[in-house]
Amino acid sequence: MNIIHFYHQQNELQARYVGMLTQCTRQSMHMDAVQSLTDMKQAYRSQHYDILHIHGCWSIQYAKAADYAISEGTRVVISPHGELEPWILKNKQWQEKMPKTLFYQRQTIQSAYAVIAMGTMECDSLKKLAWNPRIETVRNALITKSITQDEMVAQLSAIYQKIMDSDPVHMMTDDTRRALFTILKASTAGHPQWLQQHDLTSLSTAQWRQIMHYAQLEQIESFLNRGIRILGLKAPDTTVHNIPCYLPVDYTQVKTIAASIGNMFPTENERLLATFKFLQRQLSSHRLTILHLLELEREIREHDIDEGLLCETLEENRLLTFASRLMGVLNYFTNFEEGLMPVAPLQDRQTKKITHLITNHLKI
């Protein structure tokens, strides 16, 4: 894990704090520290960083650093160091700066994966401010004896790992994502022919951990495990059910299609019509997930469908275009064959939006 710290060059306490962190974590992770945006960009030319840890708040440089890091695929964590306490916000000096700084300051705090308070009072103040719901508390060993340096570093390291384990699909390499979709493809198709196209035997334990964690969060473990069996792969014995991670505020357990619409339908066409109606409702409420797509593909593959009648029924219910877009989305995620689709796939701007919604289901 590669961490880069950004702090104000004239703040001696922050300099000591960052220096202590880099010294204590030298054996467990790579850490660099910079004091300007120019130095930060220079550091990025030779090193990718997983996390940018910003110390302090009231500088446009911090906001620019956060924006730059996010554009580079780096996740941001912020330690305000008490600079968002109520007495500072009410101070006349800050009141004069507030119109200029609040615009970017709030946005910067909101974009962070976590905000780290250094005590209960600061934590309470940040909760009342309500700019970011992901607030952690790690006391500062430089100013209190209630925590040791080792304890402080261990708690910060756990937060860093929690950030890295959040929204795992966006932390995957291209190879890991291809492996994930290949396994899911084998699961829905029911045969292993795609193994010849991708070497999945060389996946590392870390890659498997990401894949299995994503499957657990998206509730597609049964599909993943079936694909693993079909492809004859041997996944490591990795427990992912208790991995701490951050989830979107509106994250809820996904209801399967069958649990939502039931199983009592006189024909498969009527079941599919009810399925598409349900999926359209899920999309309108931004709750359409990859689980629903895999269930839909399995339903289409495993049952006989009167395609002509289904298209007529979908058109009568104003669902034909939506169904075509879902076929386009399925083609992206599992390379679902067009010859097996009950309606022709459609690739347009709305299809891309649906794909984006499903891909970013776990995004903070």
Task: Tell me about this structure.
By secondary structure, the protein is an alpha/beta fold. The protein is 53% helix and 7% strand. It contains 16 helices and 6 strands. It has helices spanning 12-24, 37-44, 60-71, 86-89, 92-111, 120-129, 149-164, 174-189, 205-217, 221-231, 257-261, 268-284, 290-302, 307-316, 320-334, 349-359, and strands at residues 2-6, 30-34, 51-55, 75-79, 114-117, 135-137. A 6-stranded parallel sheet has the order 2-1-3-4-5-6, with helices on both faces. Strand 1, helix 1 (12-24) and strand 2 (30-34) form a beta-alpha-beta unit. Helix 12 packs across helix 14. The model has no long low-confidence stretch (mean pLDDT 89).
Quick take:
Helices cover 53% and strands 7% of the residues. With 364 residues, the chain is α/β, with parallel strands linked by helices. The protein has a six-stranded parallel beta sheet with strand order 2-1-3-4-5-6, with helices on both faces.
Cα end-to-end separation? 20 Å
pLDDT average, as an integer?
A: 89
Categorize the overall geometry: elongated
Model regions low in confidence, pLDDT < 50 over at least 5 residues: none
Rounded to an integer in angstroms, the radius of gyration calculated over CA atoms is: 24 Å
Strand coverage percent: 5-15%
What portion of residues is helical? Answer: 40-55%
| SSE succession | EHEHEHEHHEHEHHHHHHHHHH
Number of helices: 16
What's the story with the biggest beta sheet?
6 strands, parallel
